[in-house]
Every structure is written in C-alpha cells, then in structure tokens.
Amino acid sequence: MSEEGNEKRNVFQEGLYVGLGLALRTKEKIEDFGKKISEDYNMSEEEGKKFVDDLMKESEDTQTRLDELIEKRLATYMKEANMPTKKDIDKLSKKIDELEKKMNE
Questions:
Q1: What is the pLDDT of residue 44?
Q2: Where along the chain do its domains lie?
Q3: pLDDT in tens, 54-69
C-alpha cells in the first residue's frame, strides 16, 4: 500500500478510535466529571450546572462532528475501493427482478 494510502487509513483509524472513546463516555460519567470539577473549583451551584451543561453540549457537538467525519471517510474509502453503494445494489436488484419477469412471460 502506498504511503498516502497508509496515511489515509491511519487518519480513518484514529477518527474511529476517538469516536469509540467518546461513545463510551456516558452522560453519567460526563456529569460526574463536571460535578467533581465544579466542586474542586468551588463553583456555585449555578456555575456548576452551567459547566456540566456546557460539557454535555460540547460532547454532543463533538459526537456529531465525528459522525459526519466518519461518514465522509467511509464514503471516500468505498468510492476509492470501487465498492457498490446500497443505491447501486438496489438498481441491480430492480433490473434482475425486471429480467425475471420478462423471462417468466
């Protein structure tokens, strides 16, 4: 495999691993972390709640961005590997069905 291919694969793998890591961080763990930090830094209840809410929002935003990145990377790899898409397979299935109908007539 070319150096460029290895580089692309490594970027994809890194993105996938980051995504898996983020997915494993549950809402509860993020909230616990936020509460611990807010207590360690003597934040008021309101500041602590805002901090936890900000952490949750950032986590959700990161997950969304990561999902989009993974989808784009997968599409690129599928295209480069000349792998058929679901749409391609559906078109072929439809053609096969039409041919079977013509043969049975």
A1: 87
A2: 3-104
A3: 888 888 888 788 888 8
